[in-house]
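dude i think i finally got it to work??
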Amino acid sequence: MNTAHSIKSILIASALAVGLGVAARADEALPVDKTTPAAAGSQGLLGQVYGTLTYSYINLDDTSTHADNYSFSVNQPLAFGLDGILNYDYSQSGEIAGSRVKSNTLGAALRAFSASYNWGKPYVEAGAGYTWNHYAGTSDNSFIWEAAAGVEFQVTPTTTVTPYLQYVDAPDITGGNTVNYGVKANYWVDSQWSVTAGIELDDDQNSAFTVGTNFRF
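look at this
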């Protein structure tokens, strides 16, 4: 048995179970006043129409190089408590044995969340896509799927902080499964755009530092 893979599966199953359990207990939540419109920029990101542009510096563990990631995504509410997400990522490592690892990933996801709590919005997410990887004249491509859970906390009317846990698997790539965990923050500068930053770690001890912007349209 692959012990590491089993631990990852248990972690993800536990996280999703907790997320679903919290969402299912809406009857115990404090009531949310829906009669007063929220101030501009105070709703966080869940349930909003917006685009995201980010850059991430990825520190690769046990190497003398790093990787750069550029990401673009669009969030579109599909129903109350359900968002649809489209995203594209491009990553490139520094030189490794004279070549660079380059990766393109296109994906989509559904994110279900509860807005029944005053303290925050728990969510669960599932998605799928495809990744194209190139290194030293060879390619290594795969279908990918992911599952995630987190909570968006409204710290101030214009600031949210979101801790999360995510599992990603590319079955056709050796070592293509990973557990990511981290936290991201968002601050609305005005009603149309915000600045965002975050830090993410994975089970291979790599770390990513992200900055970017979100914009409503």
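The helical segments are 3-24.
im so relieved honestly
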